[in-house]
Amino acid sequence: MEKSLIKNFIKYVGLNIMGMIGLSCYILADTFFIAKALGADGITALNFSIPIYSVIHGTGLMIGIGGAARYSILRAQNKDKEANMVFTTSMKLGVLSGVIFAIIGISGSRSLALLLGADMYTLPLTKTYLTVILCFAPFFIINNVLLAFVRNDNNPNLSMIAMLTGSFSNIVLDYIFMFPLKMGMFGAAFATGLAPIISIVILLIHFVKGKNNFMYIQNRIVWSSILDIFSLGLSTFITEVSSAVVLITFNLVILRLKGNLGVAAYGIVANIALVGIAIFTGIAQGVQPLISKGYGLKNYEVLGKVLKYALLTSLSIATVIYFGMFFYADNIIGIFNNQNNLEIARIAKTGLRIYFAGFFFVGINIIMAMYLSATERAKNAFIISVARGCIIIVPLVLLLSRIWNMTGVWLAFVLTECIVTMLLGILNIN
Predict the structure, then answer these.
(1) What is the pLDDT of residues 17-40, one digit of tens each?
(2) In terms of DSSP H, where are the helices of 116-222?
């Protein structure tokens, strides 16, 4: 049994890590091409915009992961009708929330850009990026919902292919729109918005080939079902929104300390970190179907083994990432510092070497939050996620930045993740 479990673990986790790296490259590709085409102002504007992308992405993950977790539990219990109702409710929630974001994009992008810290130099670029991304929100959210359900419907290969195809398309379209067509910031955002549509087209193969064990049915939305989906996916949403809260807080603090160049340097660090965090999210999402199924069957031995494999994998990857950032910081920064700005390079290098020490704890925290959600312990998952996202890091960055300036900003992230890991130990969650 253990060999079979390890095989499934490697399959699900490996495919999800690849897929999530692809998904995270949506923004990293934008960072690279915007840096080349628009310089420091472009990176700064992008960094002001990313928190909104994180909220959209988090909404899709909350509905998708929450709905798919309940779907897996119901399928394990042979409750097919109820499982279909969960899928239908998830799709309706995805469309509704996406439309709300699109309305905000059409009517409120300028106000939102100013609120996020944009000034007279970065406002036009920030507004443009926000408007386009918010208008494409329905596709981002539906894509995340379908990715989760197809993955949990025994087809992680197709989910991975869809994520990677969308990401690769974004990279190619970024280049075409920003250089040969010279579409600037609009081109970068438009390329990113088209990527989930391409991913959705790939995911439809699951239905066309008749491999789907779930289907859309006519039913009224039940409030208890909505609350159930939200509760199971809430920790994932909080994880993503916490990224947005951290970005906004850091942007405003760094803007005070180092101005737009400081925000540009942080943009490099934060966008590379998004890829690293995506790897840990990939591990968490990869084990979620295995945990939900084991929990539905009340097989607690499987739950313990899957959790152990996930945590060991996380620590191994964190070690590789940290030492890679420490020894190759100059090379990595050079990729995005197109204007060879010495101040950006100096700030970003210190940031990479301090900030990424937090990765030894990030993976543990993300995986444990997912584990708790998948085993219907939404309250504890919520506590961990909120502790990471708001309660600890915001006061820490405000305090430490006053004491140690930029070093304090970088340390706030590391200390937050460390404290949350200790909180897991205090709660004695196992």
Answers:
(1) 887 787 677 678 888 899 889 988
(2) 123-135, 137-152, 156-178, 184-203, 205-208
Distance from C-alpha of 142 to C-alpha of 154, rounded to nearest angstrom: 19
Task: Quickly count: other Cβ atoms within 10 Å of residue 340's Cβ.
Answer: 8
Rounded Cα–Cα distance for residues 137 and 94 (Å) = 9
Classify residue 387 by its DSSP letter: I
Between residues 249 and 373, the one the model is more confident about: 249
Measured CA to CA, the distance from residue 316 to residue 149 in angstroms comes to 29
- Write the CA distances from 39 to 156, 203, 212, 335, integer angstroms: 38, 36, 46, 12
Closest CA to 235 of 73, 378, 358: 378
**How far is the CA of 200 from the CAs of 19, 66, 191, 197, 352, in angstroms?**
14, 19, 15, 5, 34
* pLDDT exceeds 50 at position 199: yes
pLDDT of 14 strictly over 90 = no
